[in-house]
């Protein structure tokens, strides 16, 4: 495995710069630590003072994401919150991989999102400028109220509402330009020719004549979008009185991708109206919605594999001048089309749309002095639809001076789909609040139902050469399954649908005595239609305690300690992320045939065997730690240890028949540290330095039975290993001579020759066998960190955010010679073995055998990286100055996102998400581009 000093430089950077607190990083933030302790945070079905809580809740102000160039607000939280891991993709409209305190299941990994009280699968429909705050809930004390949805953590998003006061109009607008410098290192034409002919020589084949192919093409450059633009524009109108508060906002975003013709557009809208009917009765309604034109997504995969010796376009004078060139027929043409022809020939041939509408309403009233009843109603409707077209066009074949259909397609095709997702959620909440003497008590009881219905339809069809009208033209008017150009006999339609029902009873108690001793408890009983009949209800709970030591009399003489709270919590949470909707009622699939009365009939079998006692996974979790501030509240330090253990994993077991079972457990544990310093020098200058660091260690404690394991590509799920560990052979170098092979253990997985990789005999039996495979990498970092610095002087402000990970491995899944087709090479292959002593890491150029393509440490890369995440410089105009022009406020700023990343991964990016058991795999990826933007914010 290659050595690197990057890990050590990352560690030094962390020790030097410190760690982040509370996600508060805006230079305009002048809130004192005392105010932050007293601040009100969302806790699920209500609010509470942060000071009164026993758990770990981090509140991030909406200003942190409002002026950042990202379509999904979560993207801007990377590195902001201890314990929150976010892996971004730079592709427009993509979803981030979000994990809180590690991976603790073999099913879904993302936390649950709660937007203004309603559960959501993601928050891509939200305008970042509409967000008031985001609370990240991490510990059992704060999560158990969500029951079977809580195992992966929760993120509560509160959107802006109207405030009492004058009518105000706020305009936020920015425009940015994209670029990227990190890209895979590939061989050029001359290097490719050398390596390919060397490969042929190793196979005892004659050298290839490249006479017709004298191009030198960088296919990444050919298909990249140069200077992509991202626009974000938002306007908010709000008005409020003692009786009525209203807010309306509208947003527009347009974003170009890093590949040509990837264009994303989104409109967002939000309305809220809160009415105070009397001193004891309040009501309100609102809606949030979005409409998006989704991009026609492409990948850089073909541009990495296509041979560089071909020019993109035929420039030879003649009847075929200007056509796209085919790749050489013997050099990958059967597997890879001309990447530029793919992008240009298919531009704007897929039209996908996404619409979401979320109306909501509530009524709330107080009675008997200490009681409040609130009734909430939410509707979520999401519709995704699309239609597309596969064109037919010719490419030039240099070897025969002729043309042929691109990818061999002689018939145009059309596809069409529509998905509808409708969820109705309601909850009824009764809250009791009272203070008597030194006792402070809040008790909440609730009832909730969630009803979800999902339907989908997809289909495709082809044109017909016998159709009198000819082939379907490249015209969106005809891209329908019902088009007259479609051959009815080729239509293929698929549908799916399901319903999910959940009913819940829950309660919570918040108690403190003398403002010093706190106890929080939660209990939830969930029932679900997804589980088998007779086992549909399950119970989840938590209890937490805290002690504000700094209020004790013996602390009064320690004036440098302003605040110190010890806290801890324990709970039993659940995981509702599962691959099926009806575990008690499997669908039937064709499983053979039967003959009756001489006729052949299909036979049907259940999709899987039912397990009557199947239940949700249970997460037994605890944490303990402290919160503190010192030196007149300028220095704040928080720390916590967490331990999460998921038991009764909902596991799919393939067999005859397949079945699901509760079995196995996973553990994730680690530490979180946050530290921050904020100070003011004189009247005009203030500054801050904040940082955070999180350690994470995962382990599969056991599987559903001894000896059971499953392999998914390079990843393995096996007892004793980290979740998603990479599995393969350990490389001890390269065989230098035949004598070296004879003196080494005998291989049973292939016949190596000089120049091939040398695998380690792990079990010492004198042979290289599949039993010598072992853990060769861990995709979960040892720790992640982020830190921020900022300052403000007379309205001129500066901020910079940094982010990094340390100690993880990445599995390179491209450029390993994994196909017999002659793909392009990674530039590292230039240092291959060419004779004894020439290389002890890069094997010879030889694709005649699969021996070097076994998963091994040869494919493992150091995943540690360090990134300058965001830099912003701007100016807040004084109220006296802008008041002359009828303005309440005016801010101008320049923002640079993803300024620079230092890493040792050969690809566009060093970070890769994935599923619970298969992540951290480098498939070359998609650029996280640098975005330089200019913005303005004005309030009238």
From TrEMBL:
Gene3D superfamilies, per database record: TonB-dependent receptor, beta-barrel domain, TonB-dependent receptor, plug domain
PROSITE patterns: TONB_DEPENDENT_REC_3 (PS52016)
Domain TonB-dependent receptor plug: 49-154
Origin species: Chryseobacterium taihuense
Record-given protein name: TonB-linked outer membrane protein, SusC/RagA family
A Pfam family this chain is assigned to: Plug
Protein family per UniProt: Belongs to the TonB-dependent receptor family.
InterPro entries found in the cross-reference section: Beta-barrel_TonB_sf, Plug_dom, Plug_dom_sf, TonB-dep_OMP_SusC/RagA, TonB-dep_OMP_SusC/RagA_CS, TonB-dep_rcpt-like
């Amino acid at each position: 495995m290659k050595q690197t000093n990057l890990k050590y430089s990352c560690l030094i950077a962390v020790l030097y710069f410190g760690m982040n607190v509370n996600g508060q990083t805006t230079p305009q933030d002048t809130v004192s630590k005392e105010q932050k302790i007293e601040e009100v945070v969302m806790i699920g079905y209500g609010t509470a003072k942060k000071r009164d809580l026993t758990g770990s809740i981090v509140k991030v102000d909406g200003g942190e994401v409002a002026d950042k160039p990202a379509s999904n607000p979560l993207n801007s939280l990377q590195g902001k919150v201890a314990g929150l891991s976010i892996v971004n993709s730079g592709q427009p409209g993509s979803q981030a991989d979000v994990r809180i305190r590690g991976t603790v299941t073999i099913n879904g990994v993302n936390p649950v999102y709660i937007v203004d009280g309603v559960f959501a699968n993601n928050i891509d429909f939200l305008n970042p400028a509409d967000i008031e705050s985001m609370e990240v809930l991490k510990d059992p004390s704060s999560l158990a109220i969500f029951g079977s949805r809580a195992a992966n953590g929760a993120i509560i998003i509160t959107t802006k509402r109207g405030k009492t006061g004058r009518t105000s109009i706020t305009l936020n607008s920015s425009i940015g330009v994209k670029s990227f410098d990190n890209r895979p290192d590939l061989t050029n034409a001359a290097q490719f020719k050398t390596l390919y002919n060397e490969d042929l020589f190793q196979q005892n084949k004659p050298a290839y004549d490249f006479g017709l192919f004298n191009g030198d093409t960088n296919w990444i450059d050919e298909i990249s979008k140069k200077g992509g633009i991202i626009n974000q524009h938002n306007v908010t109108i709000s008005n409020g009185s003692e009786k009525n508060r209203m807010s309306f906002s509208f947003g527009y975003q347009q974003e170009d991708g890093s590949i040509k013709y990837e264009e994303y557009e989104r409109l967002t809208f939000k309305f809220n109206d809160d009415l105070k009917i009397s001193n004891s009765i309040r009501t309100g309604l609102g809606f949030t919605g979005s409409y998006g034109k989704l991009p026609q997504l492409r990948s850089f995969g073909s541009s990495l594999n296509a041979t560089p010796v071909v020019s993109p376009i035929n420039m030879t004078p003649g009847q075929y001048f200007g056509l796209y060139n085919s790749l050489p027929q013997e050099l990958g043409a059967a597997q890879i089309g001309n990447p530029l022809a793919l992008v240009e020939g298919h531009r704007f041939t897929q039209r996908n749309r996404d619409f979401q509408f979320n109306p909501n309403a509530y009524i709330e009233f107080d009675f008997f002095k200490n009681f409040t009843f609130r009734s909430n109603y939410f509707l979520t409707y999401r519709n995704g639809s699309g239609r597309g077209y596969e064109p037919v066009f010719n490419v030039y074949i240099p070897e025969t001076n002729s043309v042929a259909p691109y990818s061999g397609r002689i018939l145009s095709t059309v596809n069409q789909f529509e998905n509808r997702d409708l969820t109705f959620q309601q909850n009824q909440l009764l809250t009791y609040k009272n203070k008597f003497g030194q006792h402070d008590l809040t008790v909440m009881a609730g009832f909730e139902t969630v009803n979800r219905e999902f339907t989908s339809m997809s289909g495709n069809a082809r044109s017909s050469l016998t159709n009198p009208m000819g082939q379907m033209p490249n015209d969106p008017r005809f891209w329908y399954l019902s088009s007259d150009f479609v051959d009815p006999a080729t239509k293929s339609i698929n549908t799916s649908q399901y319903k999910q029902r959940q009913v819940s009873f829950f309660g919570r108690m918040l108690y403190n005595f003398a403002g010093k001793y706190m106890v929080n408890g939660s209990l939830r009983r969930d029932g679900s239609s997804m589980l088998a009949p007779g086992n549909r209800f399950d119970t989840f709970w938590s209890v937490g305690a805290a002690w504000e030591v700094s209020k004790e009399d013996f602390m009064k003489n320690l004036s440098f300690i302003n605040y110190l709270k010890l806290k801890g919590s324990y709970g039993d949470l659940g995981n509702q992320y599962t691959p099926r909707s009806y575990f008690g009622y499997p669908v039937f699939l064709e499983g053979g045939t039967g003959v009756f009365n001489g006729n052949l009939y299909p036979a049907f079998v259940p999709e899987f065997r039912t397990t009557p006692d199947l239940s949700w996974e249970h997460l037994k979790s605890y944490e303990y730690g402290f919160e503190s501030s010192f030196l007149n509240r300028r220095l704040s330090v928080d720390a916590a240890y967490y331990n999460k253990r998921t038991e009764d994993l909902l596991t799919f077991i393939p067999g005859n028949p397949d079945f699901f079972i509760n079995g196995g457990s996973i553990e994730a544990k680690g530490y979180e540290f946050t530290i921050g310093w904020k100070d003011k020098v004189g009247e005009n200058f203030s500054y801050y330095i904040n940082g955070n660091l999180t350690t994470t260690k995962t382990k599969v404690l056991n599987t559903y039975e001894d000896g059971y394991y499953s392999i998914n590509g390079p990843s393995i799920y096996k007892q004793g290993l980290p979740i998603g560990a990479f599995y393969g052979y350990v490389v001890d170098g390269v065989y230098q001579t035949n004598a070296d092979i004879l003196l080494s253990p005998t291989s049973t997985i292939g016949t190596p020759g000089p120049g091939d990789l040398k695998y380690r005999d792990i079990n010492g039996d004198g042979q290289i066998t599949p039993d010598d495979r072992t853990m060769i990498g861990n995709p979960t970092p040892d720790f992640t960190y982020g830190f921020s610095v900022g300052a403000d002087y007379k309205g001129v402000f500066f901020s910079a955010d940094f982010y990094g990970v340390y100690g993880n491995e990445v599995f390179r899944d491209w450029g390993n010679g994994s196909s017999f087709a002659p793909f392009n090479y990674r530039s590292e292959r230039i240092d291959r073995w060419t004779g004894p002593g020439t290389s002890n890491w890069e094997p010879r150029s030889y694709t005649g055998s699969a021996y070097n393509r076994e998963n091994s440490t040869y494919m493992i890369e150091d995943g540690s990286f360090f990134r300058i995440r965001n830099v912003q410089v701007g100016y807040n105009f004084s109220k006296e100055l802008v008041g002359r022009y009828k303005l309440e406020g005016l801010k101008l700023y320049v923002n640079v996102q993803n300024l620079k990343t230092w890493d040792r991964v050969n690809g566009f990016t060093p970070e890769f998400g994935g599923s619970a058991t298969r992540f951290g795999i480098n498939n070359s990826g998609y650029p996280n581009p640098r975005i330089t933007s200019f913005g303005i914010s004005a309030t009238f």
